[in-house]
Specification:
This protein is α+β, with helices and mostly antiparallel strands. 34% of the residues lie in helices and 29% in strands. The strands form two sheets. Strands 1, 2, 3, 4, 5, 6 and 8 form a seven-stranded mixed β-sheet that branches. Strands 9-10-7-11 form a four-stranded antiparallel β-sheet, with helices on both faces. The two termini are 27 Å apart.
Length: 290
């Protein structure tokens, strides 16, 4: 096998709580992660150059060592003393800097692909242990599905599959600095409302979509929405047009909404399109790897 084509799937957070700050500056979290069927396309091809090279359809993305895909490829090639090079072609569809782990899932796909291309025989757990060296979300992006993430996001516990439902994903034409969001959270940490993560887990086990949506929460909304009020406007629009629940994913600015049926979700998508509040809008489904 000289090349491999892969789908790098995005994630949303059904619940996101920050429980503390470590001495090293990292934040302790409890998050319910969920993979969605929105993906980038990653093609990895062996080359004789001995180098790791990269191309992408978005000109503003770096194609050097600053890109997590390059870091992921070099991590395995150097560990296993592989002299051959690879070329990575990345076709981006997941919104960039949007709270959907786009860079992390691309890196996860590269780790998976290098493992297959060079027959390294690493298990999923082996890849996850290496992935955390690249980024806290990378192990989850290798695992996929519905999971509880703790620690700095690297301690993962699989959960039963989420209720099947349509999900509408909307990103306004703004970018959010994760660093800025967490710094703002630190300054008001004693005043934030913490979501009921354990309650959400129980409702996932009970397949209770309404219960899940009633309890959904993201502490980062408390600081991101005042900086970018359009996030609240998008949430309100989704709820007005039939969403069972709507919330910001990660540090934003992407908003997702859960719907009971495709007809309502499609109507909500049309309504949100007319507002011109969003730059990228996708109607998709939740991914279940079980």
């Amino acid at each position: 096998m000289d090349s491999i084509n892969l789908k790098a799937l995005a994630k949303i957070n059904i619940g996101l709580d920050v429980t503390g700050i470590r001495d090293d500056g990292y934040h302790q979290v409890r998050m319910i992660m969920q993979t969605v069927n929105l993906f980038d396309k990653v093609c990895i091809t062996k080359s004789d150059s001995g180098n790791v090279t990269m191309s992408t359809n978005l000109k503003f993305l770096p194609v050097n060592d600053d890109n997590l895909c390059i870091k992921a490829a070099k991590l395995l090639l150097e560990e296993f003393h592989i002299d051959e090079g690879v070329h990575i072609d990345l076709e981006k569809h997941i919104p960039v800097a949007a709270g959907m782990a786009g860079g992390s899932t691309d890196a996860a796909a590269v780790l998976f692909g290098i493992n297959k291309l060079f027959n390294l025989k690493l298990s999923r757990q082996d890849l996850m242990e290496r992935g955390v060296k690249i980024g806290a979300d990378v192990p989850y992006c290798i695992m996929r599905g519905t999971a509880l993430a703790e620690g700095i996001g690297e301690i993962l516990s699989p959960l039963p599959p989420m209720v099947k439902c349509p999900v509408l994903i909307a990103k306004p034409g703004i970018s959010v600095s994760t660093k800025q969001v967490y710094e703002a959270l630190d300054s008001c940490f004693d005043r934030v409302v913490h979501p009921d993560i354990d309650g959400i887990i129980e409702d996932i086990k009970g397949q209770d979509l309404q219960g899940i949506c009633n309890k959904m929460g993201n502490v980062l909304e408390d600081v991101t929405i005042p900086l970018h009020p359009i996030i609240a406007d998008i949430k309100a629009n989704m709820m007005e047009h039939g969403a069972v629940g709507a919330m910001m994913s990660g540090s934003g600015p992407t908003v997702f909404g859960f719907f009971k049926d495709n007809k309502t979700a499609k109507a909500a998508k049309d309504a949100l399109t007319k507002t011109k509040m969003v730059k990228q809008l996708y109607l998709t489904t939740l991914y279940n790897n079980k």
